[in-house]
Amino acid sequence: MNSTRRFCTGPLAFRLDADTGFVRDVRFHGHEVVRGIYPAVRDEDWGTLPPAVAPLEVRETDGGVLLRLHARVAAARMDLSWNAEIEASADGRLSYRWRGKAERDSVTNRNGLCVLHPAEAAGAPCVVEHTDGRRVAGWLPREISPHQPFRDVRAITHVLDGRAECAVRMEGEVFEMEDQRNWTDASFKTYCRPLDWPRPYVLRAGEEIQHVVTVEVRGTPVATENAGEKRSAGAPKLPRVGFTLPGPVPAALRARLHALRPAQLRVEAVPGELEATLDWARAETERFDCALVVVLRGAGEPAGREKFPARCALHLFDERGHAAPADVLAGWARAGFAEIATGSLHHFTELNRERPQADAAHTHTVFGIAAQVHASDDESILETLTQHGAVARAAHRLGGGRPVVVAPVSLGRHADSVEPRLRGEMGARWLRGSLAQLAEAGCVESATFFHTHGPAGFLSEDGETPVEKFLRTIAGRDALPPA
Question: Distance (Å, rounded) from C-alpha 129 to C-alpha 177?
Answer without folding.
Answer: 13
